[in-house]
Specification:
The chain is of the alpha+beta class. It contains 2 helices and 5 strands; from the N terminus they run ββαββαβ.
């Protein structure tokens, strides 16, 4: 299935078309974005989990180094903005909200 992946940079959006599995499109899209380096290497990302319930996609990132709480504002916006814009603007995914957490905790709420 074809979807548009949107990378968010300061004041710039870059979109491209990607093909993902029809059975797990949200998980596959998140994986493609993460492989593009939207999480700085120093964070030590080792995995992720995705759940979708009631039009809300929850993305739990698993890191073994510094963690998401160490991201600068621009880095956080690039990460969260890319995931949110991509998932909510592909209307066939039926996602209205994106929640990002690390080991089940939202670092922006700490």
């Amino acid at each position: 299935t074809m979807y548009t992946v949107i990378r968010v940079y300061p004041n710039v959006y870059k979109a491209k078309t990607v093909y993902v599995s029809a059975t797990r499109p949200v998980r596959d899209i998140v994986g493609k974005l993460l492989k593009e380096g939207i999480v700085p290497e120093r964070v030590g990302l080792i995995g992720y989990e995705v759940t979708v319930r009631n039009r809300v996609a929850t993305i739990n990132l698993i890191a073994n180094r510094l963690g998401l709480g160490t991201l600068a504002n621009g880095e956080w916006e690039a990460l969260y903005g890319s995931l949110k814009k991509t998932l909510t603007e592909n209307s066939q995914l039926n996602i209205d909200k994106v929640v990002l957490s690390e080991d089940g905790v939202n670092p922006q709420e700490q």
